[in-house]
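Minutes, project check-in

Agenda point 3 was the complex the collaborators sent over. CS summarized: two entities, 586 residues total, and the question is how they sit relative to each other. Sequences were read into the notes so everyone works from the same version.
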Amino acid sequence: MSLMSLTAVELGRKIKAKEVSVQEAAQAAMDAIMAKEESVNSFVTVLDEQEVLNRAGQVQKMIEEGTLNGPLAGVPVAVKDNMCTKGIPTTCSSKILSGFIPTYTSEAVKNLESAGAVIVGKTNMDEFAMGSTTETSAYGVTKNPWNLEHVPGGSSGGSCAAVAAEECSYALGSDTGGSIRQPCSFCGVTGIKPTYGTVSRYGLIAYGSSLDQIGPVAKDVTDCAAILEAISSYDKKDSTSMKREDLDFTSALKDDVKGMKIGIPKDYFGKGLDKQVENAVSAAAKVLEDKGAFIEEFDLGLVEYAIPAYYVIACAEASSNLARFDGVKYGYRTKDYEGLHNMYKKSRSEGFGTEVKRRIMLGSFVLSSGYYDAYYLRALRTKALIKKEFDKAFSKYDVILGPASPSTAPKLGSSLSDPVKMYLGDIYTVSVNLAGLPGICLPCGMDDKGLPIGLQLIGDCFKEKNIIRMAYAYECTKTYQHSPLSDRL
Amino acid sequence: MANKINDETIEYVGILAKLELTEEEKEQAKKDMEEMLSYIDMLNELDVSGVEPMSHVFPVNNVFREDIPSEIDGREDTLKNAPSEKNGGFEVPKTIG
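CS then shared the predicted structure for the full assembly.
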């Protein structure tokens, strides 16, 4: 068995107990990457092996000296390629950022480094995190480790595939409209989208700033709680960062849901939901009920309006955020041009992919005079109404339970041609971002094709502990399913 | 509210978004945007009168700090990322005739 089959916390424990050295752990990750990348392609950039081993040596020394003693010290991690890492190429899976080497490290990654993490590479994603399949990457598609003919989901598809294929112990992802939870669902791994403002966005290349959050992707709930504890911090450099004093997420790892109240939105189980996903999620609810949780169906309301509101807001923010890519300060510049404006236009047109251009154009349109009120402001008003619906629900329930995605992973090449249809797949995830809530996705079964099904638990703002506790209690009834590919190679 | 995206709109959006599209891309963009907007028009079913637009879920205020110079000089590394540099600055095409 490879060291990469262990959870991050298990590996960290072995390192602490001197059963495994940090170098051995790093070497195991590098070997796994070498063996599996050709099939999976989870990474845009894999770090130089010697550099990784050097860093591992430094961490080993700090552990021995007693300066590093957290649960993740010495454990190899992969980072989504939209988080800046000093001296390591960061592309957002876009041609326009080819060759970009950040001069600073994002706060979340810095926090991980302070906890003794050893970075092995940067993971593939949908270009600028815009997509649900990781197929819009300029650096090739990532494949689902459960079946290489299927997508891993997106946009954190590389991070989720790398964890499922056991190329690293855990990874960081980012979630703007489901980009951690949906690929976790497709790849059979666990991930958390924290309450907005919990993890600093400093150094995260922005897509929709009012929605973006960084979060953990790992094999189980215990890992996710430990990782989230490590990356969360108040950061002056992010003006939306929240001062929180309840960041001891691992304290919620209790196998006890007695008396907790779960609401199941009736609207989540309507048209468009795959029968096998429905059955698996309902069975998970039953497991929690048997463990003593109180379960009730209710009307959440406005569910179908979350998707149009989300796309207006996310695209509007993206059109503004992506204005900085102009071929002047970093990244790609077109070869032939006449004058400044032509240089801007050609660099951007050649540097951005189709989906990114589609969203920038929609965003520019909804912000343009004449349409601003009708689209952008209306979407922000809808967001306020959606938030109210959740407030109402959380006055009655501790956790909202449902699927993370209406289906299991689709086949490669079957999603991009019909954007609206692809966007509809985000129905269970986007409202969580609009309302700033925390959500966790963890595996709850398999379909008849052998593809994982994900369970989503949503909590009220700042109530990560409720969803961690419930997810942990559910997980205690199951054993982790390794993907076939992680064993074969 | 269909058919609000004509050739002029696509041209105008191209200017706002600083994108130069081929004829083929323009046709596709017209079709895609039309389709997305007619879906988004679903929001018109909701009565939002009297609802304040919510740009952030939590109250967000401007964060002020003292302007204290620090020792970091990242000029050299920053310029390494520039497609073109000259005399310690970013080089751009001539902007004034």
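Noted in discussion: The domain at 3-262+396-488 of chain A is CATH 3.90.1300.10 (Amidase signature (AS) enzymes).
Follow-up: revisit at the next meeting once the mutant set is ready.
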